[in-house]
Amino acid sequence: MPVVVRGAGPPRAAYLLYFGDRAVGGGSIGPDGTFSARLVVGRERAGEYDLTVRLRGTRQVLLQLTCAVPEVTPTLLPTARGLR
After folding, report:
1. What are the tens digits of pLDDT across the range 23-72?
2. β-pairing verdict for 22-28 and 61-69
3. Which of 50, 65, 74, 82: CA 20 to 30 A from 21?
4. How many CB atoms lie within 10 A of CB 7?
5. Quick check: 29 and 9 in contact, CB under 8 A?
6. Integer Cα distance of 45 and 25 in angstroms
7. What three-state secondary structure class fits 82?
8. Which H or E run includes 45?
């Protein structure tokens, strides 16, 4: 399920979205000074990760959040043997 990250910054500036230390997305801030980015968390280990939006080419932080990835309990699926 995607998470939408919204924030503000300098109009038309480029930004990068980081999940932990990895850049996982980016784009340009709109002319009104706002941005919206979608993050789809894949198969990450359970835990808390920093979610940071920075101006591209700088270390200036526009937004910083914590993203909690829950422990996933495997779902048992029926096998062909179990259906006979």
Report:
1. 989 999 999 999 999 987 767 678 888 889 999 999 999 999 987 777 77
2. unpaired
3. 74
4. 17
5. yes
6. 19
7. helix
8. none
